[in-house]
C-alpha cells in the first residue's frame, strides 16, 4: 500500500475549519505583518519553552542568523558546532563572516560530543551551537559548563526539538543564551509556509533581536543597527496559535509510535541480528530521565543504501538526514577538513535512515514499514 514519510493532508484536515476562520478574519483586517497574533504566539512559545521572550521571525534559519547577529558574532570569530545537522546550522555562521569549528557527535545520540568541545576552544571562540537533533536534547549539562568556563554564548538549534526536555526536565531553548525554533511544515509545530522563532530569557538580547528583525530600526526609519527583514507573517502566527493547542497531543502520538516501532523491531529479530539499531531514548547514565519528541525516528542500519532503495521501491517514505556531513561539503572545502576527521558523523551519514513517525501514522502502517525492513534482511 505504501506509507508516506509525512502526511500533511491528514495532519491538517481536522484543523481546516478552525484555520479558515482566522484566515478570513485576517483577510478582512488586511494586516499581514507582525501584529497581535505574533505577539501572542511569542508569549505562548516562550512559556512553552520555559523561557521569557520570543521573537517571531521568517524561518528557523533566520532565527539562528538573528541570534548570532544579536550576539555580535562576525569576522574573526569562531563558532563551535556539530558537522552533522541541517545545513543552516553552519551556513549562518559563515554568512556573518565567522568561522565554523566542528566537533564530532556522540554515536548514540547523534548530538555534539561535549567531551570534545574544550580542545577546540581558542581565543577567537565566541559561541557554541549545539543541535538537538531529531528531537532529542544535546547533553546540555557539560556543554553549559564548558561555555561558562570560557565565557561563550550558547545558541540552541532547537529547530527539530520544540518541547524536548533535557534529563533534568529543562526544555529546549531554556538552557542556552538563545534558542532557535523552526516552524517549517515538517517540524513538530509547523506553519503553512516558513516561520521561526528565537527564544531567550535575556531582555536585552530579546530587544536587540526585535530591532534587528525590522532592519535594525527603532523608532521606524531610525537605524541603530544593521538588521534585515526577518518578520513573521500574521497569517503564519495565527495558524501556529491554533496548532500549538494540539502540540502536546501530537508529541505524545509520536512517542507512542516510537515505542511501537521498538516493540515491532524487537519481535522482528533484526535487533538481535544487529541489522538494525534503534534510536536510544536514554542517556547512557543509568537512571537518568529522558524525553525525546521524535521529530525524526532514525535507525542505524546495515547496508543502508540498498535498504533505502528497497523501501522506496515498496513506496515506503524514508529519508537520509543527512548524507554529507558539513566538513565534507564542497562549499566548506576552504575550511581544510578531510575525510576521517569526524568519524562518527561520517558513519552516521552512511548508516542512518529516517522512518515515518508522524502523529497520524497508523498501527497498520507501522507494521507495514517494519515488515518491509524485515523482508529486506531476512
Ligand atoms: C529545519 C532546520 C533548520 C532551519 O529551519 P528553516 O525553518 O527550514 O529555516 C535549522 N536547523 C535544523 C537542525 C533544522 O532541522
Please, could you describe this protein's structure?
Strand 2 (78-81), helix 5 (88-95) and strand 3 form a beta-alpha-beta unit. By secondary structure, this protein is an alpha/beta fold. Helix 9 (247-268) packs parallel to helix 12 (363-377). The protein is globular and about 70 Å long. The chain has a seven-stranded mixed beta sheet with strand order 1-7-6-5-4-2-3, with helices on both faces. Strands 8-9-10 form a three-stranded antiparallel beta sheet. It starts with 7 loop residues before the first helix and ends with a helix. The protein folds into two domains: 8-103 and 110-245, Aspartate Aminotransferase, domain 2 (3-Layer(aba) Sandwich); 247-377, Aspartate Aminotransferase, domain 1, CATH 3.90.1150.10. The protein has helices at 8-12, 16-29, 36-48, 60-70, 88-95, 140-150, 203-213, 234-243, 247-268, 304-313, 343-351, 363-377, and strands at residues 53-57, 78-81, 99-102, 125-129, 153-157, 178-182, 196-200, 276-277, 297-301, 352-355. The structure holds pyridoxal-5'-phosphate. Pyridoxal-5'-phosphate binds next to helix 4 and helix 5.
In short:
Helices cover 37% and strands 12% of the residues. By secondary structure, it is of the alpha/beta class.
SSE arrangement:
Blueprint: H1 8-12, H2 16-29, H3 36-48, E1 53-57, H4 60-70, E2 78-81, H5 88-95, E3 99-102, E4 125-129, H6 140-150, E5 153-157, E6 178-182, E7 196-200, H7 203-213, H8 234-243, H9 247-268, E8 276-277, E9 297-301, H10 304-313, H11 343-351, E10 352-355, H12 363-377
Parallel strand pairs: 2-3, 2-4, 4-5, 5-6
Antiparallel strand pairs: 1-7, 6-7, 8-9, 9-10
Bound molecules: pyridoxal-5'-phosphate.
